Amino acid sequence: MLLQLIFSAIFLYYLQRLFFYLKGVYRKYIFIAKIPGPPGKFLLGNALDIGDTSFSFSAALLRWADEERAKGHNLMRVWVGFRPLIIPLNGEALKPILDSTEELTKGDDYDLFIPWLGLGLLISTNGKWKSRRRMLTPTFHFAMLDGYVEKMDKHSKILVDILHDKTGKELDIYPYVKRCALDIICDTAMGTELDAQHDPNDPYVLAVGEFNQLAREQSFVWYNWIPGVWRFTKRSDEVRVLDTMTGFTKKVIADRISQHQSGELNFDGDVKGKRKAFLDMLIEMREANALSDEDIREEVDTFMFEGHDTTSSGIAWILWCLATNPEVQQKACQEVSAVFGDSDRSITVEDLKGMPYLEKVIKETLRIFPAVPQVQRKVLNDFKNGDYIIPAGTDIMITMLLVHHNSKAFPDHWKFDPERFDVDKAASRHAYDYVPFSAGVRNCIGQRFALYEEKLVVAWILRRFSLHTDRPMLSNTCGAETVLRPLLGVPVTLRSR
Ligand code: HEM
């Protein structure tokens, strides 16, 4: 009898939990069903149209966004199986989301990066994020950028010297740019010369490439979503790659700390001709007990990750747009020649504050092909957006790729037209119609660094080479992964100037 009572109580308890769970699901479904979006299939939602590559995913999203905007909608809903994604389609719908500081947190997809980046600036939330952001903002101050630019210049010169032997035949320039960006971030973030450009088989360089490949498989290959599959098939590779990456940064940090302690490195007034790296500032914060060794590791790895994949995708797309738009390339090249002539001198911060046409080329590239194509937020409390309620627990996918292809803000939106960024034209758009670096409190802390790096590397390439291809710009379709990937890479022929 007692046993019967216990079983009945347990049964009722679970029945009640199931009831509340289903009630929550039903409530969520009712709100989401009101949000417009492409019709889905039973159980699968829109998964079949999305396909299993980032390229089919991006193509489907772009098509649906055009259809929904044509019906006058600002917000769209897509079902990936049982998982609804809510997607703002223009600046007006995006603004309340990016400006919110209370109702939203980072989405579930960031969890993929926690084993590598820990709860560093990109992933942390609330109080931890606020204090870290305050602490790290000065590391991107103008005075620091001067030192970073010297390092960018050094590694860009190496890039153009390497490319000098590759002229006259088609090559995919993307991997070269990527290794240059990796050398730049390693030197600026950690004060360490990785020299990936001369040693592409360095274990750290290979591990970064392998991690990106694993992240792609985990996100886009559907059977990896089945609980347990990843753990049994790929987890050991992931652990090996993570060990290589974090092992490398831990060693660099430990060496640098001991150099600080022994007095070998002393940056008061830039002694010994050395420039402070990002890591040196973190070590100074450690000395003031503001950061632990693991805190430093998280932030260094966050900057290593955020600071090279993004800029290399950005530069790759700029080079592609220049090669496929020769008249734009010629104008940019004339501007660069007017600044540097035939000299081989270094590029300085002062130079980077100029070259306004090249800047517009960079902005237009980041519009058509945003290097970070999407970010994610999770709704903590029901969130009103226009006429709709986005229920608590739902993921919002902020897709720069879609927002930037809104023909109301950018007529003829697939046309490459740097003049769109003339000051008077930009002023007539909604401020959030163009958000390559996101906006609001959680915008990109490294955006000035990124724009300097992109301008500097591209200026060096234009000083030395012209870029050619017979293919049209849009033959290279884009895949929205962690960064925006060109299907064909960047296949161009370089000719020496
Ligand atoms: C073209 C290059 C870049 C683009 C397009 C870009 C874009 C973005 C975007 C869209 C975000 C918001 C992420 C989110 O909300 O989840 C972000 C955040 C961030 N970016 Fe960048 N980024 C670039 C380069 C860089 C560089 C060079 C660095 C560092 C050196 C950097 C460091 C960061 C960090 C640490 C965050 C997190 C900021 C926070 O949450 O407070 N980024 N970036």
UniProtKB/TrEMBL annotation:
Gene3D superfamilies: Cytochrome P450. The keyword Oxidoreductase applies. InterPro entries: Cyt_P450, Cyt_P450_CS, Cyt_P450_E_grp-I, Cyt_P450_sf, Cytochrome_P450_Monoox. The keyword Isomerase does not apply. Keywords: Heme, Iron, Metal-binding, Monooxygenase, Oxidoreductase. Its cofactor is heme. This is Cytochrome P450.
